[in-house]
């Protein structure tokens, strides 16, 4: 612990503030009045604020907040723990803080002094003012929503004024079979001047639903957050619980978890690739990519009984073993998928009409990555090699890393090419795993005990973080932040200066999760 604390000496954090250190984090208790100064120092050290969440409401009416920072070349996250009644907003220092603070206000009613945006985030007008669902005084029970009236504060979109400026509202119901979200464009002609995204239509109260559940049931809740990152969220949750319980996952289970994580990444990104060429009317390529996705999902079903790999992850390992001969058989199928994909990617990237639509469209500029806490393919396609698997290695990635891939252009073309590269890399990684996978048990025994921990994984969309607190053998607090939560801000910036007809392909090039944001 001393060595890690010494690395943070540039922060001038007193040693007596040090709370502790675990596999993922090093934590400090920071006085309320010092949080802004510490945040400014962290910004000067080029740190990234990747999450703020409220752990709990204390008995004295104050709130315990946790600020999670990522520092370059530090394998552990820095967590600042704050006990406060009205914390100072950090939006001026870290713009990404805005959505985190609004989510905390919705859930707990805690106000942030100096916040430039106090609008609701995930609670819509059907919820009355003064309803804060994550407080312990609110019990898990059906609620009766009502029509918006004087009981709620109307949501106001930002407006752009000027000659010829008009608004184009899109959603929340869309023409495709997709999740709901509202996009409010301010445009002149077809040129986009501003985009504001409003989500929350899929808010299901997942964090509240987990309260009082057994740690085992929490796995099923976590994997239900977003269908195309079921394994990522289940693993993230399980890893947090395993830290609390001091569980050592058996080697074979560690290998199989990596297999399933990369399998999920493959089919999820194949879906993205198909969607992108669909949105530029290249249906022939889309059909071929969807065939590959279907092939991979059938492999998922053969291995686990679920096309979405649900039910396979458990605390202490995986729910059941996979025979070696079956692994070899399906991996041969995946090798054929990889060969086919190489040909399709080469073909698509040689078509002038595709390049014309993809190139220079929807650029995410590299200077936005840190202020907005962007991650995953969105960040890597803009030249930043941010990847939890390499920056904060976990599981098999500690000994068998996957070097992060990057593209430099930050446009739709860069994201398409990068996602294609990542599918190829994941399928190659899977092939190597099968050749070396050890034998042995896939489930460790454990006893439930109280405690708390934070874990992180690299989902198909980027950095997912999960915090779990267990009290009296049950979940007392379950908090989750998926990559989509921050990456939606990238979409608001990427469309600026583009035309409205290009919005669908820009949106699909990121393919962010509504459900994974709304929780």
UniProtKB/TrEMBL annotation:
Protein's organism: Methanospirillum hungatei JF-1 (strain ATCC 27890 / DSM 864 / NBRC 100397 / JF-1)
UniProt KW Electron transport keyword: no
Keywords carried by this UniProt record: NAD, Oxidoreductase
Domain NADH-quinone oxidoreductase subunit D as annotated: residue spans: 279-445
Coiled-coil segments on the chain, per record: none
KW Oxidoreductase (keyword) present: yes
Gene3D superfamilies in the cross-refs: Cytochrome-c3 Hydrogenase, chain B, NADH:ubiquinone oxidoreductase, 30kDa subunit
Residue ranges occupied by any NADH:ubiquinone oxidoreductase 30kDa subunit domain in the UniProt entry: 30-138
GO terms, molecular function: NAD binding; NADH dehydrogenase (ubiquinone) activity; oxidoreductase activity, acting on NAD(P)H; quinone binding
SUPFAM superfamilies assigned to the protein according to its UniProt record, in alphabetical order: HydB/Nqo4-like, Nqo5-like
The name this protein goes by in its record: NADH dehydrogenase (Ubiquinone), 30 kDa subunit
Superkingdom per UniProt: Archaea
């Amino acid at each position: 612990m001393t060595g890690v604390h010494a690395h943070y000496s540039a922060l001038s954090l007193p040693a007596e503030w040090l709370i502790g250190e675990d596999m993922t984090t090093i934590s400090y208790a920071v006085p309320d009045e010092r949080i802004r100064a510490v945040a400014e120092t962290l910004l000067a050290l080029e740190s990234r604020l990747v999450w703020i969440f409220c752990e709990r409401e204390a008995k004295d009416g104050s709130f315990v907040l946790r600020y999670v920072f990522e520092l370059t070349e530090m394998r552990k996250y820095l967590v600042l723990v704050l006990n406060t009644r009205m914390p100072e907003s950090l939006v001026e220092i870290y713009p990404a803080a805005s959505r985190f603070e609004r989510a905390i206000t919705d859930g707990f009613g805690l106000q942030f002094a100096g916040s430039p945006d106090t609008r609701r985030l995930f609670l819509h007008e059907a919820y009355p003012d003064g309803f804060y669902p994550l407080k312990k005084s609110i019990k898990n029970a059906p609620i009766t929503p009502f029509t918006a009236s004087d009981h709620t504060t109307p949501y106001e979109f930002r407006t752009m004024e000027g000659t010829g400026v008009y608004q184009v509202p899109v959603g929340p119901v869309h023409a495709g079979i997709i999740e709901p979200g509202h996009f409010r464009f301010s445009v002149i002609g077809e040129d986009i001047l501003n985009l504001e995204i409003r989500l929350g239509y899929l808010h299901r109260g997942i964090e509240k639903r987990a309260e009082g559940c057994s740690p085992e049931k929490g796995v099923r809740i976590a994997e239900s957050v977003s269908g195309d990152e079921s394994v990522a969220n289940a693993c993230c949750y399980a890893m947090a619980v395993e830290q609390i319980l001091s569980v050592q996952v058996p080697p074979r289970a560690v290998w199989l978890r990596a297999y399933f994580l990369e399998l999920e990444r493959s089919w999820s990104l194949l879906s993205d690739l198909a969607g992108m060429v669909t949105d530029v009317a290249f249906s022939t390529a889309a059909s071929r990519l969807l065939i590959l996705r279907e092939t991979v999902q059938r492999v998922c079903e053969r291995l686990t009984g679920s096309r979405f790999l649900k039910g396979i992850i458990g605390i202490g390992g995986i729910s059941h073993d996979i025979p070696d001969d079956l692994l070899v058989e399906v991996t041969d199928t995946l090798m054929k998928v990889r060969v086919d994909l190489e040909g399709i990617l080469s073909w698509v990237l040689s078509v002038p009409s595709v390049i014309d639509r993809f190139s220079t469209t929807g650029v995410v500029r590299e200077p936005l990555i840190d202020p907005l806490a962007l991650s995953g393919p969105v960040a890597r396609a803009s030249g930043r090699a941010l990847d939890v698997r390499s920056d904060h290695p976990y599981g098999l990635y500690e000994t068998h890393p996957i070097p992060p891939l990057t593209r430099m252009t930050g446009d739709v073309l860069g994201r398409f090419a990068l996602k294609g590269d990542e599918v190829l890399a994941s399928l190659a990684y899977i092939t190597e795993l099968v050749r070396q996978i050890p034998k042995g048990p896939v489930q460790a025994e454990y006893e439930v005990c109280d405690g708390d921990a934070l874990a992180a994984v690299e989902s198909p969309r980027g950095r997912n973080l999960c915090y779990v607190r267990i009290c009296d053998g049950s979940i007392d607090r379950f908090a989750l932040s998926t990559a989509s939560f921050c990456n939606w801000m990238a979409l608001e910036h990427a469309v600026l200066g583009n035309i409205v007809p290009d919005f669908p392909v820009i949106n699909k090039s990121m393919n962010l999760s509504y459900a994974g944001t709304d929780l």
